[in-house]
Amino acid sequence: PEDIRVYEFAEACGKSPAEVITVLFGLGMMVTKNDFLKQDELEILGEEFGIEVTVKDALEDVNYVEDYQEEVDISHFVTRPPVVTIMGHVDHGKTSLLDKIRSSKVASGEAGGITQHISAYTIEQSGQKITFVDTPGHAAFSAMRARGADVTDIVIIVVAADDGVMPQTEEVISHAKASGCPIIVAVNKMDKETANMDMVKAQMAEREMTPVDWGGDVEFIGVSAHTGMGIDDLLENILLQAEILELKADPKAKVKAAVVEASLEKGRGPVATVIVQNGILRLGDNIVCDTTYGRVKAITNDLGKPVKELGLSETGTVLGLNEVPAAGAIMVGQDSDKEARDIATKRAEHARAKELSKSTKVSLEEMSGLI
Ligand code: GDP
Ligand code: MG
Question: Where is the secretion signal located (predicted)?
Answer without folding.
Answer: none
